[in-house]
Amino acid sequence: xxxxxxxxxxxxxxxxxxxxxxxxxxxxxxxxxxxxxxxxxxxxxxxxxxxxxxxxxxxxxxxxxxxxxxxxxxxxxxxxxxxxxxxxxxxxxxxxxxxxxxxxxxxxxxxxxxxxxxxxxxxxxxxxxxxxxxxxxxxxxxxxxxxxxxxxxxxxxxxxxxxxxxxxxxxxxxxxxxxxxxxxxxxxxxxxxxxxxxxxxxxxxxxxxxxxxxxxxxxxxxxxxxxxxxxxxxxxxxxxxxxxxxxxxxxxxxxxxxxxxxxxxxxxxxxxxxxxxxxxxxxxxxxxxxxxxxxxxxxxxxxxxxxxxxxxxxxxxxxxxxxxxxxxxxxxxxxxxxxxxxxxxxxxxxxxxxxxxxxxxxxxxxxxxxxxxxxxx
Length: 377
Known about the structure:
single chain, Dehydroquinate synthase-like, alpha domain, Rossmann fold, 14 helices, 3-stranded mixed β-sheet
């Protein structure tokens, strides 16, 4: 399978930034050569999910990747951290910073984030503040991180108040997405990542959504050609949105479809795995379409189509399906107050006029929202 490479180009007031996203099969074995221009003779710190380790197994992609990096530079240090959103906290960030600094890095040093979205978020945030900013590379290992969190430069950690409330925009030097590593995922994690893929069709591309509805079985059965297509297409849609709105001043907020609900849902589970991000996003998107229908923005037919694709993908679509979490309407409303999209203490939601056409709804009517949640919980 031939790899696909394209650039993310960001327009800034003074400079233009562009970086490659390389998507393909079995890329990690040649990762050092692919990334050579970014890592040659530099100090490299690989921050990786602790599920990846060395076991002298020829099929161990992490081990093969590290060996390929060592062919390009002799200074490679490894830092392992637990996966899962509970890792994204200030204590873990401090541990990472202290370990990286102990390696006597300089401003030419490069951090490589090897893992899912959690690893990419916290490693990228560490890179953004170490020595006031050093470069980093994303090597995402989950479907969710390959199609979403590894691209666009959002980095950060969680707090007790909410998700991703401390962070920075720090773009990677490159993103290396190897389809082959997706075999290491559990079925639950893989399906959860598919929720973010569906999101891209819903916000921007009706044709892509229809294709996903037709091909979801093949995708969920790990058809490599289909996987390359969805990863590439998702990244291209995201790149198109962020190129003129890097720091979410306007259009980039569309990428948060369903996430206002999702982040609140996740916080009630204390990020302990009872509900994971993609599952919460699935519910959140369905709620966003239901709310859009309630406000007469979106048809009931489109709303039912959206719920249907998530159900067929064996993802949750309703708050009532969450049996192991406890929360109330008032608690949900309190969480909404800390959403980063809000303006002047007014709630902001991403809603839809139809499939493929999301929009930002500022100044959400609180009474309508409370009534809607009472119907859903």
